[in-house]
Specification:
- By secondary structure, this protein is mostly helical.
- It is built from six helices and no strands.
- Helix 2 packs across helix 5.
Length: 118
Amino acid sequence: MPEKTEHLNRAKHNEQFADIVTKMEQVHSHWSVVALFYSALHWVEAFLACYNVHPQNHHERQSYLRQYPALQGLYKAYRLLEDESREARYEIATFNLSYVTQLKNRLAKIRNALEPQL
């Protein structure tokens, strides 16, 4: 299982990738949304790794988001990122840059809440 630092590195890498893709042009905005979600996923995974918890799938991870007090306030932000990522990947959704910025703010909420605890 990946350790906390590996999840943190991947979270930061995914967020950097989202920034790069967002600056390219709006046609790639769906990749920004996907990268933002996977960044959020790895922030949550890094937190859970501190407790030697390693969810095997999205459903299990969502259960932990509802279970741990430090994660409970992040559930809505996380689920929005997850849902929009799914829309981007499977429903061919596109997103304007203003909305990508709103999603980036949701990721920032997750990062800002978890980073001090890591």
